[in-house]
Amino acid sequence: MPGINILTEIVIGYIMPGNPLASVVFKTYGCTSMGQAINFLSDFKLGHYMKIPPRSMFIAQLAGSVIANASYFGTAWWLLSDVPHICETNLLPKGSPWTCPSDTVFFSSSVIWGVVGPRRMFGPDSIYSGFNYFFLLGLFAPATVYLFHRLFLEKKWIRLINFPVIFAAAGYIPLVKTVNFNCWFIVGFVFNYWVLKHHKQWWGRYAYVLSAALDAGTSFMAVIAFFTLGNYNINSVNWWGGVTDDYCQLAKCPTEPGAYIPKGCPELE
């Protein structure tokens, strides 16, 4: 939920500037809890689709929440205690999965919106003040699609443009890599365009269940990969989708003139 996520960080950043802990707590209650509620509603929708009684579905969700909370807490405690240099990318062996990309983004957000604050980052006198115009872009982009659709009714593809989905997907870029977007696009195009167009009855009956099955399969594969590879210190498999350098090589280089230049970074003039 990138939109609500940023909104909560901006609000608490103005209310309590310089307080990263308050930013994290407010973001958790204002955004993360809402995201979990939407996930629960999605599960309810799947249960309704599969003719599962609502009361049974709710009990299963409640039990799952209790078990998941205990499991997550225990797993996190175990990982932080037993995995050397966890989340320290410069000290981890090559290909290690313990880089904590999601937690790193969460920490960076607390620094940007909590320590620095939105006023200093995106205020009128800041160097990033121009980013505020993207709020207007997000407001008027869907209206532009609607306008062009009304002007060019014969162009059926215009109504398929969904800027909220495009912008929301961009919010995941700090975590995922380009190979993720390629897979999402291929699967989405095949099942939500080709299959929908040529096998609409099959799509209407199985598409939603297939989506849940793919999510479940990913979770099962993560568990299997951990026990079959992780236990033997095999951190990565050499295949085209498992590249570890799918990012800009200069992303960690300094940009401030006069700063120390690490090996492999270009000289600043």
Automatic annotation (TrEMBL):
<keyword id="KW-0813">Transport</keyword>
<feature type="transmembrane region" description="Helical">
    <location>
        <begin position="127"/>
        <end position="148"/>
    </location>
</feature>
<keyword id="KW-0472">Membrane</keyword>
<dbReference type="Pfam" id="PF03169">
    <property type="entry name" value="OPT"/>
</dbReference>
<feature type="transmembrane region" description="Helical">
    <location>
        <begin position="179"/>
        <end position="196"/>
    </location>
</feature>
<keyword id="KW-1133">Transmembrane helix</keyword>
<comment type="similarity">
    <text>Belongs to the oligopeptide OPT transporter (TC 2.A.67.1) family.</text>
</comment>
<keyword id="KW-0653">Protein transport</keyword>
<dbReference type="GO" id="GO:0035673">
    <property type="term" value="F:oligopeptide transmembrane transporter activity"/>
</dbReference>
<protein>
    <recommendedName>
        <fullName>Oligopeptide transporter 5</fullName>
    </recommendedName>
</protein>
<dbReference type="InterPro" id="IPR004813">
    <property type="entry name" value="OPT"/>
</dbReference>
<feature type="transmembrane region" description="Helical">
    <location>
        <begin position="58"/>
        <end position="80"/>
    </location>
</feature>
<keyword id="KW-0571">Peptide transport</keyword>
<keyword id="KW-0812">Transmembrane</keyword>
<feature type="transmembrane region" description="Helical">
    <location>
        <begin position="208"/>
        <end position="229"/>
    </location>
</feature>
<dbReference type="GO" id="GO:0015031">
    <property type="term" value="P:protein transport"/>
</dbReference>
<dbReference type="InterPro" id="IPR004648">
    <property type="entry name" value="Oligpept_transpt"/>
</dbReference>
<dbReference type="GO" id="GO:0016020">
    <property type="term" value="C:membrane"/>
</dbReference>
